[in-house]
Amino acid sequence: METAAVGADQLEIQLLRDGARAPERSRPGDAGYDLRCLEPVEVAPGDRAKVPTGVAIALPGGFCGLVVPRSGLAARDGVMPVLGLIDPNFRGELAVTLLNTGAEPFRAEAGDRIAQLLLLPFWAPALAVVDALPPSPDDRGASGWGSSGR
């Protein structure tokens, strides 16, 4: 199909099947790129479905993608994607696992926006197993889960 031209601030996108649409931001300045379902899908209450997008991407080294909810879809219908991580070496089709937490069946038509793709830099240092960790700079130490109060 097509591949977008690559430049300094561009991400290569491949449309794998007819009807696939490149991820796009709804408004300038939005952080997430909308992902659309390639074919109609219905998800029963309490069920989940793997939904193809027909899109593959080539993330550069040091960047990953997260599949995250569209806030309106989650608030209105109780439908959200199961958080998905896209590694920079993955070149397959992006799919979204939708989970219906609502009380009614959810139906999306081909081309409907179902999730967002968020692109993030990441750090992957070498790991070193040590006998003890250095103290935290604020004396918090191992305290957590409510240790700072309400």
Features:
mainly beta, Deoxyuridine 5'-Triphosphate Nucleotidohydrolase, Chain A, 1 helix, globular, 150 residues, 4-stranded antiparallel sheet, 5% helix, 3-stranded antiparallel sheet
How would you characterize the overall build of this protein?
- With 150 residues, this protein is mainly β.
- The chain has one domain (13-121): Deoxyuridine triphosphatase (dUTPase) (Deoxyuridine 5'-Triphosphate Nucleotidohydrolase, Chain A, Distorted Sandwich), CATH 2.70.40.10.
- It is 5% helix and 33% strand.
- The protein has a 4-stranded antiparallel β-sheet with strand order 2-11-6-8, with no helix packed on it.
- It is globular.
- The protein starts with 11 loop residues before the first strand and ends in a 29-residue tail after the last strand.
